[in-house]
Structures are given as C-alpha cells and as structure tokens.
Design brief:
Length: 78
Amino acid sequence: MSTKTSNPLPKWFDGTIYTEGDTVSNPYTGDKAELSAEELSMYDLIKGAEFTRNYKILQKGLDWFRQANAEAYMTLLD
C-alpha cells in the first residue's frame, strides 16, 4: 500500500476518499501503478463515471489524474 501524497482532490470531487493508496493493475495490459490515496480515490471515481457514462466527471477526472501523476495515467487510463 502506498503512503505517498499527491495533489489534493478538487472541490468538485464527490467520490469516496481513501486514507491509503494501493497498487492498481490495468485490466487490459496487466501493467501496474502505485497510487496515493488521492489518486486511488480519483481512479475509482473515473472508473465509476466511465461505467455510468458521466462524461463530464470522467473528463474532469482524467484531466486531474493526467496532471497529478502522468506516468500512472499512461499506465492505467490512456
């Protein structure tokens, strides 16, 4: 589990806020990325928005994630 910190979550974020990070695997490639608690919270919000087709939140989440951790973004979401 990751304890590194990241950019603070934006005011519009309305998902679950985790207190610990974790390692996440890309379901298509199997590549892994270590995420901070904030990044993991946003990742879950992004995946939920993708599932529910909430494209406004999806795009805002992707923009935040790209800026917060470009390497993990490329591994997990690009």
